[in-house]
Amino acid sequence: xxxxxxxxxxxxxxxxxxxxxxxxxxxxxxxxxxxxxxxxxxxxxxxxxxxxxxxxxxxxxxxxxxxxxxxxxxxxxxxxxxxxxxxxxxxxxxxxxxxxxxxxxxxxxxxxxxxxxxxxxxxxxxxxxxxxxxxxxxxxxxxxxxxxxxxxxxxxxxxxxxxxxxxxxxxxxxxxxxxxxxxxxxxxxxxxxxxxxxxxxxxxxxxxxxxxxxxxxxxxxxxxxxxxxxxxxxxxxxxxxxxxxxxxxxxxxxxxxxxxxxxxxxxxxxxxxxxxxxxxxxxxxxxxxxxxxxxxxxxxxxxxxxxxxxxxxxxxxxxxxxxxxxxxxxxxxxxx
Amino acid sequence: xxxxxxxxxxxxxxxxxxxxxxxxxxxxxxxxxxxxxxxxxxxxxxxxxxxxxxxxxxxxxxxxxxxxxxxxxxxxxxxxxxxxxxxxxxxxxxxxxxxxxxxxxxxxxxxxxxxxxxxxxxxxxxxxxxxxxxxxxxxxxxxxxx
Amino acid sequence: xxxxxxxxxxxxxxxxxxxxxxxxxxxxxxxxxxxxxxxxxxxxxxxxxxxxxxxxxxxxxxxxxxxxxxxxxxxxxxxxxxxxxxxxxxxxxxxxxxxxxxxxxxxxxxxxxxxxxxxxxxxxxxxxxxxxxxxxxxxxxxxxxxxxxxxxxxxxxxxxxxxxxxxxxxxxxxxxxxx
Amino acid sequence: xxxxxxxxxxxxxxxxxxxxxxxxxxxxxxxxxxxxxxxxxxxxxxxxxxxxxxxxxxxxxxxxxxxxxxxxxxxxxxxxxxxxxxxxxxxxxxxxxxxxxxxxxxxx
Amino acid sequence: xxxxxxxxxxxxxxxxxxxxxxxxxxxxxxxxxxxxxxxxxxxxxxxxxxxxxxxxxxxxxxxxxxxxxxxxxxxxxxxxxxxxxxxxxxxxxxxxxxxxxxxxxxxxxxxxxxxxxxxxxxxxxxxxxxxxxxxxxxxxxxxxxx
Amino acid sequence: xxxxxxxxxxxxxxxxxxxxxxxxxxxxxxxxxxxxxxxxxxxxxxxxxxxxxxxxxxxxxxxxxxxxxxxxxxxxxxxxxxxxxxxxxxxxxxxxxxxxxxxxxxxxxxxxxxxxxxxxxxxxxxxxxxxxxxxxxxxxxxxxxxxxxxxxxxxxxxxxxxxxxxxxxxxxxxxxxxxxxxxxxxxxxxxxxxxxxxxxxxxxxxxxxxxxxxxxxxxxxxxxxxxxxxxxxxxxxxxxxxxxxxxxxxxxxxxxxxxxxxxxxxxxxxxxxxxxxxxxxxxxxxxxxxxxxxxxxxxxxxxxxxxxxxxxxxxxxxxxxxxxxxxxxxxxxxxxxxxxxxxxxxxxxxxxxxxxxxxxxxxxxxxxxxxx
Lengths: 336, 146, 179, 108, 146, 372
Description:
Shape of chain C: globular
Oligomer: heterohexamer
Largest sheet of chain C: none
Largest sheet of chain A: none
Number of helices of chain A: 12
Helix content of chain C: over 70%
CATH class of chain C: Mainly Alpha
Strand content of chain C: under 5%
CATH superfamily of chain C: NADH-ubiquinone/plastoquinone oxidoreductase chain 6, subunit NuoJ
Structural class of chain C: mainly alpha
Number of helices of chain C: 6
């Protein structure tokens, strides 16, 4: 038994538990405070104040919302497929948190440094499509069914340009390891992948495509066809109440955070300072939350796209450009 | 189509009385009184003359035991406004539908059916529009609820 | 047996392994036995997730991730999409036929499974190689795919291309103007 | 056979593969719809690929062989699924023979 | 092909402009009025519920109970009564109630008053959960008539 | 054909859009028969907010019906009052002082601008864009402040009276209105950059929900819907009433007939209305705002007349029949939304759900106006 208390082992266990708790707390915290920002930022855009009653500057508003969601009953409507209905939120939220576990937040703060980190994120984020769709289908609600069909078509369409961009990125960086990819971008902002014009002159465009695909993959406006409230009320989540809805909510923001963190890692140099000085967690968070801000900013600036407009954008604009980027990258790699 | 042409065209309809009215006094340019069985023909004529149906108004003349139906037509090109009126008996108010010529009349006729109980024969679905689905009363009749 | 951190890790690994096996088999059973097609696909997805875990235990995380990415993320989603698009549902049959086909299929499946399992238990496989030429890393896999299996790799890509074209052609041929 | 070392036994994987195969066969015979058969077919393929992986890992001098084979199987399965589903959609579009109970059941 | 790239370029530009406009608004002062803490300035003609004007001396209502407001009210929400004491020049109000639940705030009563005895109050904090609170006794303001 | 027709039967399902749905702006219910995401048939079901206003018009004296007129099309309440007051004045032969007519035009056009601004914001909400609503509301609030300062109410203005208006406008109102005109003019380029030129908005509106001039004619669609279909019909020009002939203004017409055309018509109408208001303020004559000798209990002579005004949504008509008593014998209210909604069933056929909602939004419906 004494060996169990071996120093390294205890530390390792503590580390694991801390990271597990920390990640779930991080996901929940992000869901809570990004949702507050989701109300505060548009209030600035729209000449309003936003929530300001609960706590100073509305800082306790997410707590109040959370308590409200927790105390509400999870209603299952008659005719719904109860098992799938309750399975769906878990299938959405677990992969999202698992993706978070591979994100290197700084040089040292890495929950799990996996060699195939990029691939892990992509395979796990593919699961949430099934979860959303099951939720929509199992709700036994026509609006939710339509949303379930939409989420699949949308995600299939946007996975392709996303993967094409990532393939070209992997060709440049020769690695699936997120830590390595960030380390290659050390130095100033001119070494970031987004400005790595020597690898492919289309890199800034590739970043924009990545951002668009990330919006579409996490079903954010202007691609929020899945929960288009003026058409489908709340889409796939129409029938969810209480914490069932809360889990979808957490997963949505966790997906945004993962997408923004990945954008930071892949294109914006991760934890490196733009001027090559003092790298660290704060730079990572600044960049990541700036991307999150942009996500919210985009949401409150534009109307929703049409469904076929969205598919057209993917097939007629994003995929050709991504393919072109891939080919240019390959040619440049071969030439230089 | 000018007012004069329209007047001559309308006068050819059987049993019609066409009166040119002062727009500033009456709000319409032409006032036609016509027999109820000529209504479909009138509607076709107005449709050919590119007139739009603006409204169908029922009036319950309790003293005469008659129900008057006023069709308001407007031309979007010339701005001419025509009111065509016909009277049917109050017990069995029946007139042929014009919703086949003016699809917009569909709702107006349903509304008049709701309020006055006028039966528009040939109407595709004369079910209550504004009143509850099971309404069997006609609130704009003068003897309703009075 | 002394209880060292290593045994603790091994125990966790064993529990995880058992969990993956359970998910794989239970998912597979749901995939064939459930009456609703959506549940079938969900079972299939779960089964593949478990299978990915088993691949991880076989020291090939790349395959495990590809399994998730392609089977769960693409194939299962596509099946579901097709079901939504075509509104497919299981045919309803009389209870007699249901029981008959169920029992018949079960017997047939057992006829395959029991000899196979017996074969696995009885036969002695050739011994493990003394040394492996590589560790099966993703670099080795990539090199092998482009050298030794280059022909098969190209063939697969042609097959996939043909499949895509064929799928497009078939799906388009059913489309009538005005419908 | 120790529980802890279960994951290091070739036979365990082979048995799981055999069971998946059998379940696939069961489903293939039981289901009569295209989707059901497709699902079962994927299970059969999964059983086969698990065998490849297990043999490749435990008994082959070059573990790549099993992995490469499994990758090819995944590719083939993807192609198969694409073709099968497009056929299903085409059949459905032309005949619409399959019942659509659920959406009709939902009132209003 | 040219149009394709042009559309992409103009489209992206329009999106960027839109985002810029929205961002610019973020630095403007909010226009909302935080109601319980601050309230908007009511215009002089603000039509609240009615109240009785009173004589400068004595505080008696100017109302002579002529019933004009009651007659003018479309909703029939005013009820008033007055008696003429012996020797007094005019009637004295004994009852003036306003059923605010049916009042439509049209202001016809104030217009109808020939004695300048009615005015609109500036009271807009009228929320209540009890219906009885809206049976207003205007003779003794502040006390709710029930 | 026969075999084909038998084997291909459309698999449809029914969705109830409403009575409570974010896109119906009120208690409208649309029974959608859907083929996947495509609409096979859309049957509007109305009457949830029906109040039998026409019967009230017969049961109340003429003056007592005035507040009701603001409660049909509550977004553009002054037009209903204008139509009703105009009809009764025509019936009773009352001439309105010119200053009152000018004030009516100014306030009504302000109301039109407010209504169109509200529509633009609500339409963007239908399309999923939330922010423009707050900007248009900001501008609309300015109008409501102005109208409140002269009428005393912000929404259900009961302002027009037989023979004039109940309150005169003051210099403060005139100055405020001029200030507002310049403010809104300076904001129009912002709206165009934010909304009109936005590629997503354009993609969602251009070519979506086409309504032809013939469809408008057959269904009696009027207002911006008709002008967006390329017909330059405006009651203010076609049958001039009030003092409109004295003003110089254009009737914006766009021939495309799609949602974008309707949007552009309304945005242009805002500009035209501002021009009208400016001219009216410039020419505003002095004088009384109320005709003399209008009896308190009006008893128009026996007769019948109609009065049509160009409301913010189309032509709003009142047919009043008097039997010589103080109550109308028949008070027919022709609401523009009623006809505009009736063409939805035909025009939405075969559209995608999202596009149909864009079409529904572009019709600018006020449900209580339909239900009356």
